[in-house]
């Protein structure tokens, strides 16, 4: 089980083994999670100034913002799981 990286847009990648959830940023609880992560210096903004469409939460309590739809990121995780062991 080696290092598996998932593309989250604009050449940025996250470790698939560390991802807990991929969610949309519209709800109030997710907005609070983003604010808490920003205040504790655990927020990674990988949107390049574009609109945040997916929030990726990792097992290390880091929060990654992505401009790619959550469904797209999730599909990349699933596709990587199917073909990642080659």
Q: How would you describe this structure to a colleague?
A:
This protein is α+β, with helices and mostly antiparallel strands and 86 residues long. The protein is 30% helix and 31% strand. It has helices at residues 28-39, 70-83; strands spanning 5-9, 12-15, 19-23, 43-46, 54-58, 63-66. It has a four-stranded mixed sheet with strand order 3-5-6-4. Strands 1-2 form a two-stranded antiparallel sheet. The longest helix has 14 residues, at 70-83. It is globular and about 35 Å long. The protein starts with a strand and ends with a helix.
Question: Which outline best applies?
Answer: globular
Which stretches of 5+ consecutive residues score pLDDT under 50?
none
Q: Give the radius of gyration.
A: 13 Å
DSSP helical segment count: 2
Sheet with the most strands? 4 strands, mixed
Please, what is the average pLDDT? 92
- Spatial strand arrangement across the major sheet: 3-5-6-4
Approximate helicity band: 25-40%
Order of helices and strands: EEEHEEEH
Number of strands: 6
Strand content: 25-35%
What class, by secondary structure content?
Answer: alpha+beta
Tell me the distance between the termini.
11 Å
């Amino acid at each position: 089980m080696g290092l598996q990286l998932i593309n989250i847009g604009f050449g940025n990648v996250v470790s698939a083994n560390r991802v807990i959830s991929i969610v949309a940023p519209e709800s109030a609880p997710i907005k609070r999670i983003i604010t808490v992560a920003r205040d504790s210096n655990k927020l990674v903004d990988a949107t390049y100034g574009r609109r945040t469409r997916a929030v990726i939460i990792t097992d290390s309590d880091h929060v990654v913002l992505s401009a790619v739809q959550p469904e797209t990121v999730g599909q990349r995780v699933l596709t990587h799981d199917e073909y990642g062991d080659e």
